[in-house]
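Structure in, sequence out. Go:
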């Protein structure tokens, strides 16, 4: 399962010709759910530009971790997301009120298939595997 050490610690800044596509967004408000994460990304101009999202949950406490993983098929969109999120509050006024300034960087593990497989593991741990998630994993793996 993902943890906050999954972010690339060295060389995580975008660079010309970078092929990395998976971004870890850190320091998001704990009240932010996946629907609000997606709507915030859409409002930032990324609507239709990402293909996988995962917000890990601590299964012991049932509380969302304060980070998320987002995969973009186009590496330029991943770089743009990092630039758009880093050093700014994520998700509007609730972030400002909570004093959360976001950090975004490339995740160590890359690709939609990886995100979806981790999400399936988390979903399976809490409520059994779901066929639509397995189908998405197979589809994502076919494109890599």
């Amino acid at each position: 399962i993902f943890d906050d050490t999954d972010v690339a610690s060295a060389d995580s800044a975008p660079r010309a010709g970078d092929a990395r596509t998976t971004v870890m967004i850190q320091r998001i408000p704990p009240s932010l759910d996946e629907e609000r994460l997606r709507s915030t990304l859409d409002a930032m101009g990324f609507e239709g530009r990402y293909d996988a999202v995962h917000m890990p949950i601590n299964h012991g406490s049932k509380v969302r971790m304060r980070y998320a993983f987002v995969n973009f098929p186009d590496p330029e969109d991943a770089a743009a997301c990092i630039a758009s999120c880093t050093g700014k509050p994520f998700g509007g006024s609730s972030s400002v009120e909570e004093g959360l300034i976001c950090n975004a960087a490339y995740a160590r593990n890359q690709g939609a298939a990886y995100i979806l497989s981790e999400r399936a593991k988390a979903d399976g741990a809490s409520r059994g595997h779901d066929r639509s998630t397995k189908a998405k994993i197979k589809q994502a793996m076919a494109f890599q």
